[in-house]
Amino acid sequence: MKxxxxxxxxxxxxxxxxxAQVSVDGAWLRETAPGARTGAGYGLVVxxxxxxxxxxxxxxxxxxxxxxxxxxxxxGIMRMRPVTGGLAxxxxxxxxxxxxxxxxMLIGLKQPLRRGTMVPVTLDFARxxxxxxxxRVESIDHGxxxxxxxx
Length: 151
Ligand SMILES: [Cu+2]
Known about the structure:
Bound molecules: copper (II) ion
Strand content: over 45%
Order of helices and strands: HEEEEEEEEEE
Radius of gyration: 17 Å
Number of helices: 1
Largest sheet: 10 strands, mixed
CATH architecture: Sandwich
CATH topology: Immunoglobulin-like
Shape: globular
Number of domains: 1
Structural class: mainly beta
Number of strands: 10
Distance between the termini: 54 Å
CATH superfamily: PCu(A)C copper chaperone
């Protein structure tokens, strides 16, 4: 029964043309302190396609690895871990990468992420393939809800 279901799903995927259409709105990287080994990136992943996609990970020249992480409370402690199998982005849906939640994790930083600079990042989606972005490095509290934000 399970095998038949998988075969049917595979046939459906194969029959669908290249409708994958993903983008990331307002993507940014958080500035890091000198000597930091890791960095983080955020943004709103939008899937305008008619099929679910999955954000598998990516790469950037400024770090050894780029992973997609989740953040969860575990016995009162915030823990982050790689999202196994990729982060699902529903068809016609959106998933926020934000401080305290899902995020891009830059591991093995080769240089500090300096505020105001632009950093090339390539994201890897299961259906859409590679998405090349240029992310601006922002201050640590960028995008945080604040009465003083002015907008
Ligand atoms: Cu992380």
